[in-house]
Amino acid sequence: MGQFNPYKFLLIIFLLFSIAKSPSAGNERRTYIIHMDKSAMPAPFSTHHDWYMSTLSSLSSPYGISPVHLYSYKYVMDGFSAVLSQTHLDQLEKLPGHVSTFPESYGHLHTTHTPKFLGLNKHSGLWPAGKFGDDIIIGVLDTGIWPESESFNDRNMPPVPERWRGTCETGTEFNTSHCNKKLIGARKFSQGMKQYRLNVSNTDDYDSPRDYMGHGTHTSSTAAGSRVQNADYFGYAEGTATGIAPSARIAMYKVLFYSEDSDAYDAAATDVLAGMDQAIEDGVDIMSLSLGFIETPFFENPIAIGAFAALKKGIFVTCSAGNAGPHGYTMLNGAPWLTTVGAGTVDRELGAHVTLGEGDITVTGISMYPENLFVSRIPLYFGHGNRSKELCDWNSLDSQDVAGKFVFCDYDNESSVFQSETDMYGLDIAGAIFSSGDGEFQSPFDFNLPFVTVDTKDGDLVKNYILNTTNATVSVKFGITTLGTKPAPKVAYFSSRGPDRRSPWILKPDILAPGYLILAAWVPNRGFAPIRDDDYLLTDYALVSGTSMSCPHTAGVAALLKATHRDWSSAAIRSAVMTTADVTDNANGRIIDMTTAVAGTPLDFGAGHLNPNKAMDPGLVYDIEVEDYINYLCALNYTSQQIQIITGTSNFSCKYASLDLNYPSFIVILNKTNSTTSTFRRVLLNVADTASIYNAVVEAPPGMKVVVQPSTVNFPGKYTKAEFNLTVEINLEVDSVAPQSDYFGNYGFLSWNEANGTHVIRSPIVSAIASAKNP
């Protein structure tokens, strides 16, 4: 489920650039980008382009070399680019309407960053092994799709697979011609919405497969979008956008619609079930659902029910974990036959350079302001001595003090006190610098002026500069992109956490995948990013945050794995993804929680962060049969009727009821006690081509004792199996070991290491304080 804060919508591709300065001379020519104040355009000009051209022609050329106009910008910024001499530049900066000028930037072009961050390479590993997802069909249940997006072009794609039974429906602003060899199916399911009197909006949605919101377009292109060169977000760093499985096919099942009655995008359970049902009939291989319902028993949950039917057809189903973090017990989509995905960050930051005075101090902050803007020597205000003014309580500020200035807002350890945007606009401020904790403070949703957020350390530098400087000024260069930032990944603050209330005996979420500021296709049908004067800019590509974004990453990887291993079950794919996941970040430390800045736990990140290339060749998997899930449902004390609702069959027995599912993780439940012992039985399946021997390796913290029997397992050949028991003794009352929170005890890991080989699979072992809700 995505979080749609315009602060977070950024381009994920970047230009890593450096600026080379040359000695200035009157006749030396360079390329510049010139920002202009569009409100200063003289009345005689009918277009801004005409004004820009006239401005250039007015510049004198003592050396006989005239300025050369390159581009006039209409949406990305107010201004133009041109080749100028230093003499031209000196004249231009004195003209009315000139805002700022900075030199051209040069850099190395990079592809969409999440595939690279995940280690996908077109020359080796899972991408070529899985033929980039060729012949795999991903069914996406979402808000629809914008078929004209370049991310859905079908250039060089082979014919649609003959096994495909789906179609493209005709509806509002959508017809069969909008489908092609990439987008091979598009349907909408809205009857349930209409029956519940939640009428589909005629102005803010389409009663057809067409996407109005952008969410479904974004998730579809994340999973399987075609390669698109020169994708950008308002001039931020051009690059090539691509989905995780760029050769896979997409089928859209629109089940979420905007309702004016509820003023929200809703999905009726009847519609979701109809969509999943149709996807199964059409012949999809993967289902991706970036949505969820309030946690209920599985027999009342449409996604759990629909996914069980998909499971029986060999369809892999992945769902978002929810955006209710960072608190525990906030999981959605906790059924064990679903692959549930949390959201992590990537090693990229987008922001701004903040320079105080004449270069006395320079710091870098976070900003997603949608202009490639350079603000030069603007007066800087701080309401020192009045806490309300220090916090930028707009009602406490005086317009005479702040008009035309950047205001410094000290939010460290305090929440935002922003009042109405009307109060803010009346102040006529030029922009803002927020100081907030770790620098991850989120600006107000509709703050549409230039802003940057800095962490506490840099905030103190800014504050001390203001307090010790007469006529303090600031210069800010927006549009800065940095890759390779550490540590990454981190667990996104909004990502929902386990345990799952309805099914705490299965560790959830299963996996962490990129879900923070993810670039993908967007709908260009309405204003999107707020900017000055209450304007909103359009964009074809946007960065969005949420577990909605991490879910299609996992769907794309599953498509690659299914294309590589056609005989793997959905459980085998999930096992491969989980047991090869990374639990360390790029700084060689445990993955940390974005909220606390300390090491996270498997209740935050599941088995770890997705690593596609390792998942391609795990060596061993924990497989699960349909009967095993039925035994688990029996152990939940569901009635025969309730189990039949989920499984679609009455032909079963509860003789072997057990909560001990053959899952690739282990969780011990502490119910009103700090000590307990649990024994788990597991079966390993060798999916490697050769015979092998594996040895158990345990990492256990104080208060946890783990015994594996046998500690060595032998596999004579491919598809052979081996059993083992894992006994976990938890005693948090010894050695002053205390639970780390009101829902988490401690955790360790079990690894199976191949003797004289390279395969290693890892499973988390967690003790958690949880009590399941009764059916």
Q: Biggest β-sheet, characterized? A: 7 strands, parallel
Could you tell me the number of beta strands?
Answer: 40
Shape: globular
**Tally of helical segments:** 18
C-alpha Rg (nearest Å): 28 Å
The percent range for helix content is: 10-25%
**Share of β-strand residues:** 25-35%
The whole-number mean of residue pLDDT values reads 85
Give the helix/strand class.
Answer: alpha/beta
Low-confidence stretches: 3-25, 104-112, 415-423, 441-446
Distance between the termini: 25 Å
Biggest β-sheet: strands ordered side by side in the sheet:
9-12-8-15-16-17-26
Structural notes for this entry:
The structure is a single chain. With 775 residues, this protein is of the alpha/beta class. The protein contains 18 helices and 40 strands. Strands 9-12-8-15-16-17-26 form a 7-stranded parallel β-sheet, sandwiched between helices. Strands 19-18-24-20-21-22-23 form a 7-stranded mixed β-sheet, with helices on one face. α6 (215-224) packs parallel to α13. The model is unreliable at 3-25, 104-112, 415-423 and 441-446 (pLDDT under 50).
